[in-house]
Every structure is written in structure tokens, then in C-alpha cells.
Amino acid sequence: MGEIDMKEYCTYRNPKEPLEARLKDLLSRMTLEEKVGQITQIERRIATANKDIITKFYIGGMLSATGSGPFPDALCSEWADMVNGFQKLAMGTRLGIPLLYGIDAIHGIASIKGATIFPHNIGLGATRDADLVRRIGAATALEVKTSGINCNFAPCVAVCKDPRWGRCYESFSEDTEVVRNMTSIVTGLQGEPPTGHQRGHPFVAGRHNVAACAKHFVGDGGTEGGKNEGNTLLPYNELEKIHMAPFLDCINKGVSMIMPSYSSWNGDKLHANRFLLTDVLKDKLGFKGIVISDWRGIDRLSEPCGSNYRACILSAMESGIDMVMVPYRYDEFFDHLVSLVKSEELPMARIDDAVERILRVKFVAGLFEHPYTEKSWIDSFGCEKHRNLAREAVRKSLVLLKNGKNKPHLPLESKPKKILVAGTHAHNLGFQCGGWTGKWQGLNDENERFPVGTTILEGIIETTGKDTETIYEKEPSEHTLKRDDISLAIVAVGEVPYAESFGDNEKLELPSEITGMVISVAEKFPTLMILISGRALALSPELLDKIEVLIAAWLPGTEGGGIADLVFGDYEFQGRLPITWFRSVDQLSNRTEHMLTDPLFRFGDGLTKYT
Questions:
Q1: Which of 141, 292, 360, 548 has its CA 20 to 30 Å from the CA of residue 312?
Q2: Is the alpha carbon torsion for 578, 583, 585, 586 positive or negative?
Q3: Domain with CATH 3.20.20.300 in the chain
Q4: Is it the case that residue 526 has pLDDT exceeding 70?
Q5: Is the pLDDT of residue 430 over 70?
């Protein structure tokens, strides 16, 4: 910001003034329209098409949906130029209030080519390593901030009780205590609050940190049948004990934002639940940060979605929403909210409370002093240090579920002379990374090398070097299956990418042709099967009997070399199941806590030291 012009001195512009004084001063200077603008968050496509929107409507928040950059395959520096350009417009308004600019960097900032993409949360839950997760948060924050963005819509701290849920992989575990332990990622993203930090108040340590957003409040991992945007049927005390506890940990760590769920609790939609959003979250738990809606979250308060928009806005604001991810109907939203206040249908006090919370986060995050990114940080984006961290996370996340007594079993005694690598997921970075990578639903085209990283096949070749001849066939030919000089086969198969409701799945089975291919390979060669998935899948008894080794690799991200590190014995397995692994989907309707009748693998299972 530079030196303050004392002729135009304003308390809120002076970083040496107390935070509360700055807040009070700025609020006192704002018009109703400027306050409503702060509550409004738009998708960047709107402002790209018409940059005057930022100044005309005093926009307070922007976001990029997954992959929504300045142009396809834009690099980090080009994203930074884009965001800095939007910030310059906001800083040029009458009061110079910076934008809160958000993105879903839920396993690294996977919207930008060249980013480090870490394992999805379910894999991190398998590590049980809170410090590792904290370090991943810090690395993610630096790459996000380097791109110009200052807010991350993460972490998801849902407790997933049903793997049929399409967001299962966004959950660290079915176990509340494991999820609570993994909230260390908030400290990584935002920094460590100092001793004496006032509980419930947002905290962002420095310029390398970002405002974090805990989501989705509350109970979205416990819906009936695992249905996304469904209904969680629980008494309050169970909701509090199972699903709310991780949010309290996030609040204690100074989380800046909390996002309500699309789902409902006992039939009442969370985006319009005043009891949970205001009475519990704000009053009982003492949260002083921003309650931000999900994408078109308030539109879903009416049937059909998006109808009776004025009533939706009123209901959400009365319930305690502070910032609304509109993301496109900005003019309607703005006009309706201004009108609701002028007609006294919505009290001005509710607007002031929302804006004070938004400004508090912006002041705490240092955005008034440092609204722009530093291009000198660009060397940190996708750097070797971050990729080594991601590779460490892959190694620690893998769970060894079967290790046969026949040769070869793990650890391999030596590097084999000739191996077969096969399967749909052996040489496909998009499949490795899963949803929220490059695009909302992920990347299904194996030729689309948007992520920069190492596939499982490339990791194997890199690890074995010249000692081993590697034959790769996605689907092995009859000729290959008749060879007698192949020591073993490594087959990588699993789920194709998905996100949210598109991932809801009532069967949770591998396609029959995939199962058949694995069995045909395992009948010819000793076979190690690597399962790439965002959850447990039903595995046929014949498949389990035929393969020698089964590894749950979850959705490991860009550093496939971490898998080879364990397969070839350079490191030992440490991962433990963050979920209970069912034999059939029918078992899921009768579960209580971690208990299934005769599960295939229990919560916490995982062979270590190959025993």
C-alpha cells in the first residue's frame, strides 16, 4: 500500500490501528450498496466478460470454478496476472476494499497446469500423519497464493459414513477422531495461531498463507444411502458428536470460513437452518469468521431450483449466511438484497454482521496491505520440494491389504528381469488424480496430460531402471499372456474420475470386463493389483483368490513414483484403512459405527513390515 497520505487519513487504512477500530471505521463509511456488494461473490467469467461489474456492484468476492482460468492451459503466472487485474479494479473503488478470491484447491491447486497434486483426503486419512497433512496444507497455500488467489475452499471435514456417497474421497475417514486429527491442514493453510489467540476469531499468519474454509456444515457424510445433497437423519447429540466435532477443531485453529452443506438435517436444508448456522455455529461455538454459501447453494432452497429467488435470499440471510456464492445472477441478487433491506424485511443489523465478518477476514489476511501476489514466488509452484512431499504422502497413504505367500510377494527379493504392467490406470495421470483436477469432474482422456507428474508406469520404469524390462499393455494381448519369460504382473485398475452427485454409486463394483482382465492376467502370472479408487469397492472372491498382492492406493495424485517406492521395497507400508471395507453393498444398510457383519477388511487394517 505504501505510505498513508495523512491528508486523507482513514483509520481502516492504517495497519497499526487495532483491528476492531479499523472494522468500525470502514463499516461507518459504507453505503448499503457497498455492503451488499461485499456479500456478493461471483464467478470470474462474469468479470472477464464485463470488468465494470466489479466497480459498479462493489463486488467483494470472486472465485474460479475448477479449471476456470484466463484461458485453457494457462500457467501460474498468467493466473496471477488475471487475479491481480481483478484486484486492481477492486482497489480502485471509492473505499479500496480488496477481493476475497477463492478456489477449490482440495488436493493442491489442481486447476492450474504444473501444480503439485496431492492424494485426495481419503488417502491422507490412511496415513494417520497430522504433521504430513499440515505440511501439505502449507505447500498448497504457497502454490495457491503464488497464483494470486487468497482463499481456499478446503478442507472438507465431513465424516463419511457411507462409501456410496460421491464425495467419499473428500473425507479423511469414517472415524470422527481421524478426521479431527487431520484438521491440522487448517494450520498448514493459514499458519499457527499465536498463544493467546482469541478463540473463534479467524487467523491468517502471513503472505504465504491463505484463508481456509471448513466444509460442509454439517452432516453431509451421513446422508441416507450416501446420497449427495441428501438428508441426514440424526438426533442433535449424535450430529454434534459424530459430524460437528471436526468443525470445532477447525474453529479452534482459527479457520476463516465455514461453508454449509447442500444437504439437509432431519428434512431441513442446511443453507436455511438458523438453529445450526446462527444459534449453534455462531453463538454456541463462537465462530467469528465468514459463513459462505456453496455454489448456487441458496438457489436450492426453492423448487424448482432457482425459482422464487428473492425468498431464497431472504431465508439464507436470515439463517446466518454472510457471503453468497451467487455465482452468476449477481444483478438479481444485488437488487433483491438491497430491496429486502430498504423494505425492512431484512434488518440492517444482519447486513452489518455479515459485512463485518467478511471485512474481518480480509483485514486478518493482510489483503488491505498486500492485495497482489508476488511473482518472485513463482519458482515454488510445482517445485521439487512440493513434489517430494506429495511422493512421501503417496508412500504413507498406500494400504497393503493382501500379501500372498507364493512368490513373488512383497518385498520383492530383487528387481525382476521382465515384468508386465497393465490396466486402465497404469499410465493415466487423470485417473490417478480423480475429480476436481483440471475440470470439475476430472480428466477422462488418457491423452490429456494436463497434470504434470509421473504415472504408475513411469514410476516403475524410473525405479527399476535398466535392471528390468517393462512390457506395458493396457489390456494384455493373447500373445503376451502366453509368454513364459515374465516374472510378474502389476495391474492398476479402479474408478474413473467423478465429483459430487455424479459419483453417487449404489453398486460400487469394478466393471466385469476389468475384473475379468485382472483374473486372466493373474491366471498366467503372479499378480500385484493396485486399486485406484476414492472408496472401498466390492471385490469378487475369485479375483481376491487369484491375485497375490492387493494395494489400496486411493487417488494418489501426480506422484506415481511413490507407489513404485513401496512395490520395490525401498520403503515399508504404513497406511491403515480409514474406512471399513465391505464385502457387498448390501452390508452398508446395516452398519453401526465401524461394525459390519463380516467385513472384508476392518477399519484400521493394513499390513506393515509385510506381515
A1: 360
A2: negative
A3: 31-380
A4: yes
A5: yes
Three-state secondary structure readout of 284-311: HCCCCCEEECCCCCCHHHCCCCCCCHHH
**Mind giving me the DSSP string for 27-75?**
HHH--HHHHHHHHEEEEHHHHHH-THHHHHTT--EEEE-TT-SSSTT--
Q: Please tell me the CATH code under which domain 398-590 is placed.
A: 3.40.50.1700
Tell me, what amino acid is at 263?
Answer: S
Q: What is the pLDDT of residues 7-52, one digit of tens each?
A: 468 999 999 999 999 999 999 999 999 999 999 999 999 999 999 9
- Are 208 and 380 in contact, with CB atoms under 8 Å apart? no
Cell of 348: 440492517
Residue limits of CATH 3.40.50.1700 in the chain: 398-590
Task: Assign 97 to helix, strand or coil.
Answer: coil
Give one DSSP letter per residue of 90-123, joined into a string.
HHTSSS-PPPEEEE--BTB-TTSTT---PPPHHH
Contact 63, 293 (CB under 8 A): no
Alpha helices in 230-343 (DSSP H): 236-238, 245-252, 274, 309-319, 330-342
Report the distance separating Cα 538 and Cα 601, nearest Å: 11
Question: 357 — phi, psi (to 5°)?
Answer: -65, -40
Does the model's pTM come out above 0.70? Answer: yes
CA angle 102, 106, 108 (to 5 degrees): 95
Here the cell at position 168 is 467419499
Fold of 31-380: TIM Barrel (3.20.20)
Q: For residue 233, how many C-alpha atoms fall within 13 Å in the half-sphere facing its CB?
A: 4
Catalytic residue set: 294, 500
